[in-house]
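EI: anyone free to look at a 326-residue chain?
SC: sure, send it
EI:
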Amino acid sequence: MRGASLFVAVLLVLGSAPSQAQDKYPSKPIKVVVPFGPGSATDIVMRIVGEQMRRELGQPIVIENKPGAFGIIAIEDMARARPDGYTLQIGNPGTNALAPIVYRKKFKIDYEKDVVMVTRLSEVPLVLAATTRDFPPIDYAQFIAYAKANPGKVRYASAGIGSNNHYDMAAFARWAGIDIVHLPNKGGGAAITNDLVTGDAHVALVNAASSTGVIKAGQVRALAIMSDRRLAEYPDAPTLLELGYANAKGLWSALYAPAATPRDVIETVRAAAAQALRSEPVEVAFSKQMIRALPSASLEDAQAFDRAEMAYWKKVTDEVKVELPD
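SC: here you go
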């Protein structure tokens, strides 16, 4: 009997081995939900990094674009998924720092309990840009002077009421002492840039990655850079930081997962993203788009950054009063 029991035990161990091998993460494609349409800065970042993460993890990274509702649709899709590492989400300040504060009542999840940042990925400089169509200012100083001389007549575009570039511009205008009019556009970054090209808006904060073409073509003018460093592509455009505006932040992106995802799985994703961001293909692709790789050093580092960003945007929303839609 003892020999028979030992034989059965051996069979059970051998029988479980293939199952355990299959369960090793990742064993199937990983979905990343993008809260914007194809071609947006966040989408561009994920497609570049995702291709290299595929090489690191040995599984495809499937991009699923789910725009709308300031990222709530994409965030909830990820947060409600099985917490096994096979559904992730990429976000930016507007979707994953500002929306949970501004649109808290619209969420059907408890954002702070249900979502965790896995790693920071990148930063895209923002350009304070102006239309060249019937708008006289040709540099930052002239823009400020013109806006002060024409209160309530300069229009600025954003990705909608309560978006990060709405709050960013409102906070900047408050600091600069100018009275400018908000022109919301729910179409995302490409639509905002088009507002400048057509002259419907006079100025906007647009991301450097997707606005280069129209700036190089002379349809839009770079007045200043919202980042901590100048861009070689626009050497005459100063940073808002050097002009004295302390809150001149670029547009970061980060990966998120359901909060109940096992730590070892999250760490596998973080490490793969870090390796991808250090790779030559990503470095070359990012350079062409003026994107800077900024991986988190650890999960603790990512989550400390997340808390700091939430605190920053809470302060901004307390100071800048925006009338939100119902």
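EI: The two ends are 73 Å apart (CA to CA).
SC: 👍
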